Amino acid sequence: MKLHALVALAIIVCFLGATACSSVTGGDAVVIAVESAPKSLDPRLGSIDSVSARLHQMVFDSLVRKNERFEYVPHLAESFTQSDDAKTFTFKLRPGIKTHSGRDLTSADVKWTYESIASPDLKSPVAAAFGRIATIETPDALTAVFQCREPYQALLGDLMAVPVMIESPAGALPLGTGPFKVIEAGEQTVELEAHPGYFLGAPKVSRLRVRVIPDNNTRELELKSGGVDLAINSGFAPDTVAKMQTDSDLQVVNAPGTNIAHIGFNVNDEVLRDAKVRRALAQALNRDQIIATVMQGQARTADGIMPPESWAYDAEAPKTTFDPEAAKRLLDEAGHPDPDGDGPAFRFTIGFTTTNSGTAPAIAQIVQEQWKAVGVGVNAEQFERVTFFDRLGTANFDSYYIVSVGANQTPDVFAWAYYPSYWGPDRKELDAAAAKLSAAAGDSAADPAAGELMAILDRRGYCPSAELDSLIAKAKGLSGAEKRTALLSACDLLTSRGAGNRMRYCNPALAEDILKAERSHDRSEQLEIYKRIQKTIASERPQIYLWYTANVIVARKRIGNIDVDPSGAWYFLQGITST
Amino acid sequence: MPRFHLIVARRLLLLLPVIFLVVTFVFLLVHLVPGDPARLIVGENASQETYLEMRQRMRLDLPLHQQYLAFWREDILTGELGRDYITNEPNIRRVMRRYPSTIVLALSALAIVVIVAVPLGVTAATHRGGIVDAISSVVALLGVSLPSFALAPLLILFFSVKLRVLPVSGPGSMRHLILPAVTLGFALAAVVTRIVRSSVIEELGEDYVRTARAKGLSEARVLYRHVLKNSLIPVVTILGLQFGVLLAGAIVTEYIFSWPGIGSLLLESINQRNYSLTQSCILIISITYVLVNTATDLLYRWLDPRIKVE
Questions:
Q1: Fold of B100-303
Q2: Contacts of A214 in chain B (CB under 8 A)
């Protein structure tokens, strides 16, 4: 092989390289870095990953949106009404909304979006949830009426998660009504162009380029070199952000956020089942110190699961103050005296489970020290994310630390976090039997499935509930389709709430309140119940709320008007400027 | 050359047991990892029905042996290698969209290796003990001791952040290719330089070299026409083996440089516990590895007809 042959090979390779990577995009686009590739730009598949969800916020609009108090307000809709039984929802569209294809948005687009979710070709993961919609009627071009088979309380939230899409030929780029239009969708970049006819005003920048840069260091270097203009809640360690703040080319926006960092207790643990102990452990924590050190100020102290901005927040619920002496007294009262005063022996020792990534290990270390100061020993255990969630799901922990993302922006979080789900050892059998019964509508398979389900329910392995007891008793006296309906309602009560109740917290009165609030349409009644729930939780402390992590945006200085709201949504990109 | 075809056919046939073993091994491996991948994919706030639907899609509701059979029947034998749990797109399409980028990167790295290592190795051999030899030794030592995850940020810091002559990451243009290709090729270039050097030194002592020189051939002709061809056999071996590694092992480099290849896809799929995509990536990488090795063996025959490939 001669040298010039090698050179020729090199030239061929270079040529190949140049052609294979020829998706060069010019123009003065604002470049946004994201950590992972969006799964899909089709919103009908649900906002299953956060990057897709963010992109959907820029390209599409939903019928309703949440305002700064996290209340649902009309968005594409001019107004909406909901029937008392939560089965009929009527939306009046704003007239004159321009789609990316240039025509006006009509109720037919709304109908198409939500009806096509059920299409077998699409195989949407959210098809089951939207399957509760029986029909969508469009009496005129600006009215859409959703008729549901059963009460569908979560419809407004689901409509926000799946915004309205405009039908386009198969394989074409998705069309919406949002401030930006997709003009190219590659494996690692999505190119967006301003939609001049956007109904809330045309964006100030003409182009956005979203680039996937999974490595944190690379993303940081891209920001420094000017290859990237913006990184929004990009998973940088707090001290990396603090370091970038000193870079003369960069700016850091540290705005209040809502993601809630908290510690949860396994309330079935012999020691931790006592609310006094949990309260004492809360008082022993100096959250301000952790926020100032590990979090570098990129968080604000939390006293409840709801963010203070929310309409359902209770400002009067008792707050926790850092008071190690009071904590010691409470622990003494709870029957756990310190065996040797300030000596090395502990009152008791508990496990503290966290993930092994981000700030979790450092936080675990500080928590360990602070609890040690009141005489409580801590076995800190760190796991990889999936194993961690597995342990949480199976209650294989004494206490855990986690940041919950997004869940607390609606009061549904109370049902998610505190409602007692069914966590008996036969949970899998219950799910299987319920699935069988649900599939067997009226055929011969229904009876054995109903029998299986009844046998499981008869073991009474659930948190006491008068409603469940009466449903089960009622089912016993019924047969056929009625029995099936009653049993499925019982299963729904046991499985569809409480996915975030890893603490195994069972408080029948509180669970009843959660259902009552869910079924009420009276805002003031709901608020009263939510306040009661927050006061109960503040005194029972199945979870200790630590802080709301900040929305952290690192940007080149040429980007202006970065005004992110606490939800962390990307809507503010419509208003950013670039010089 | 009918025997040549036979050899190729036999090698391709050997792919079948390899595929079987890889598929089985990968299937078992990803299922050994603890945790509930369905929960991870749908997110902790997802409704119970979405979660159960995802378990069904991932076939996690079936016993392990049935999952394995379904995997063969619905994924492998259909050639789709499974479908994405969310977008329902056949995995093979996704993998093949990413594959060209990986090939471009691997070929570029290989080109850098050949362009740098062969002349450097030859010069080091002909000027033994000289300054070039010393430099090549130091570079070789650096190359084998500096892993790509350390080299890459250093290159980015210097060329992209300080000098601002090259982009930090991502695909886009020829300039985007340089840093990842250098990162990927550096360690291999170091090894190949040393191999070329020792191989050339060995060949230079052979009788035929003395004969060629006695015939009055120029030193350049002796070196490039005779010595180099014979010295290249071990180099081809290592390049052949390493090309497979470059294709498969560009994971770290692709990740750091946000290069849209199969390596970064593999990592993405592992992070998302996307079992079937992980399986698809590994399967395609394994097949490539076997094919490249077969091609290497055949190349030997061309370089040295004395070698029997059977």
A1: MetI-like fold (1.10.3720)
A2: 255, 258, 264, 267-268
